[in-house]
């Protein structure tokens, strides 16, 4: 999975922001969402995003996998990422 060209990720004190520079829309992200998006922006896949979540937060693997799957599905549905 890869973020589409024109998508920018910025960290904030409250998590992060995902900006679609073409459409002018944005998503506000919590801390865990920022970890996932940063992994994807770094060119890593969903499995690596799960590993980053596990390293950063006290969450079990099943929940981390579900969270990454939900966010990646939303990104694909919004056409902000490609498989």
CATH-assigned fold name: Arc Repressor Mutant, subunit A
Shape: globular
Residues in β-strands, percent: 25-35%
Q: N- to C-terminal separation?
A: 4 Å
Bin the helical content.
Answer: 40-55%
The residue ranges in which pLDDT falls below 50 over 5 or more consecutive positions are none
Number of domains: 1
CATH homology-level superfamily? Coenzyme PQQ synthesis protein D (PqqD)
The helix tally amounts to 3
Mean pLDDT: 93
**Biggest sheet record:** 3 strands, antiparallel
The gyration radius over C-alpha positions equals 12 Å
Structural class: alpha+beta
What would CATH call the architecture?
Orthogonal Bundle
Element-by-element helix/strand order: EEEEHHHE
CATH class assignment: Mainly Alpha
Secondary structure: number of strands:
5
State the strand order across the main sheet. 2-3-4
Describe the structure in your own words:
The structure is a single chain. With 83 residues, this protein is α+β, with helices and mostly antiparallel strands. The protein has one domain: Coenzyme PQQ synthesis protein D (PqqD) (Arc Repressor Mutant, subunit A, Orthogonal Bundle). 47% of the residues lie in helices and 25% in strands. The chain contains three helices and five strands; from the N terminus they run ββββαααβ. Strands 2-3-4 form a three-stranded antiparallel beta sheet. Strands 1-5 form a two-stranded antiparallel sheet. A hairpin with a 2-residue loop joins strand 2 and strand 3. Helix 1 runs antiparallel to helix 2 and helix 2 packs across helix 3. The chain is globular.
């Amino acid at each position: 999975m890869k973020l589409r060209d024109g998508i920018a990720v910025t960290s904030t004190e409250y998590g992060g922001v995902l900006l679609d520079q073409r459409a002018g829309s944005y998503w506000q992200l919590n801390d865990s969402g920022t970890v996932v998006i940063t992994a994807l922006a770094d060119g890593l896949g969903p499995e690596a995003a799960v590993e980053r979540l596990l390293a950063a937060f006290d969450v079990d693997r099943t929940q981390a996998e579900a969270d990454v799957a939900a966010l990646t599905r939303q990104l694909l549905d919004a056409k902000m990422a490609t498989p």
